[in-house]
């Protein structure tokens, strides 16, 4: 079992490696995408600097707290889009029959399908997270926590996308649902949770688990709490397992389109 997991992990890393090598064929474009993504993220911080010049507190967050909130959100987004780009267009892969080429390979279908491409600009999101951490206060504890939470957040975002896109096995036009779910996760994660009240706040810790991806991690970075750290890790394991379960259940209903697709 452990050997099979290790082999699958190696195969997935190789797939990502070859995807990166394809992108590096045009190094100028690759680097430009990264730089412009960093600048794009930085531009949004300017609006918060202006807002905090008017008011000192937003939902219990100061300027430095908002900075690390954006840094963590960017890292989670970047991790998911860089390593698992195809998870966010999985419904298209299913509906157009492109899943066929992965079914005949002796490795996990889901991992093979979502690691075949990378998003170069997403690397800029990851680097931006560390730049923000440097501004916030770089130390070993914060570096480790931000890295862990960047990965767990990215895995949660990827898993939710896989679950929503896997609905394509049963229903049509589910890409709209998946896109809406992904947009909600990203949009809510860039605002302090203190500005949300009642039902909306409850939703952000349950149906749209932004609280698990960003809000709890921010609390742990500001003031370390092993219980909250454990909650995030356990939830990540749960949602990843659920994503595999939903996809594999749907895969049993998959009908090939007999589309010939060559993978290079």
Can you walk through the features of this model?
The chain is built from 12 helices and no strands. It is mainly alpha-helical. It has one domain. α3 packs across α8, α7 packs antiparallel against α8 and α8 packs parallel to α12. The chain is globular and about 60 Å long.
Shape: globular
Helix and strand sequence = HHHHHHHHHHHH
Whole-number count of domains:
1
Mean pLDDT: 83
Helix content: over 70%
Distance between the termini: 29 Å
Number of strands: 0
Q: Ranges with pLDDT <50 over ≥5 residues? A: 260-264
Strand proportion:
under 5%
Main sheet summary: none
Report the radius of gyration as a whole number of Å.
Answer: 19 Å
Category by helix and strand content: mainly alpha
């Amino acid at each position: 079992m452990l050997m099979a997991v290790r082999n699958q992990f190696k195969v997935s890393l190789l797939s990502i490696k070859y995807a990166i090598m394809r992108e590096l064929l045009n190094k100028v474009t690759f680097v430009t995408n990264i730089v412009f993504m960093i600048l794009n993220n930085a531009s949004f911080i300017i609006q918060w600097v202006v807002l905090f010049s008017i008011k000192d507190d937003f939902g219990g967050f100061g300027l430095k707290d908002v900075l690390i909130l954006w840094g963590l959100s960017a890292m989670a987004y970047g991790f998911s889009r860089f390593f698992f780009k195809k998870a966010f267009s999985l419904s298209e892969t299913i509906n157009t029959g492109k899943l066929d080429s992965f079914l005949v390979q002796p490795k996990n279908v889901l991992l093979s399908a979502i690691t075949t491409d990378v998003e170069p600009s997403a690397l800029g999101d990851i680097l931006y997270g560390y730049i923000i951490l440097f501004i916030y206060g770089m130390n070993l504890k914060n570096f480790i926590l931000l890295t862990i939470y960047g990965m767990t957040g990215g895995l949660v975002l990827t898993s939710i996308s896989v679950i929503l896109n896997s609905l394509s096995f049963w229903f049509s036009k589910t890409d709209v649902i998946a896109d809406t779910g992904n947009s909600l996760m990203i949009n809510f994660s860039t605002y302090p949770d203190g500005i949300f009240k009642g039902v909306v706040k409850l939703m952000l810790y349950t149906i749209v688990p932004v609280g698990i991806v960003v809000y709890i991690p921010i609390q742990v970075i500001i003031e370390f709490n092993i219980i909250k750290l454990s909650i995030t890790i356990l939830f990540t394991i749960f949602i990843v397992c659920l994503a595999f379960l939903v996809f594999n259940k749907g895969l049993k209903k998959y009908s090939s389109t007999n589309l010939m697709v060559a993978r290079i």
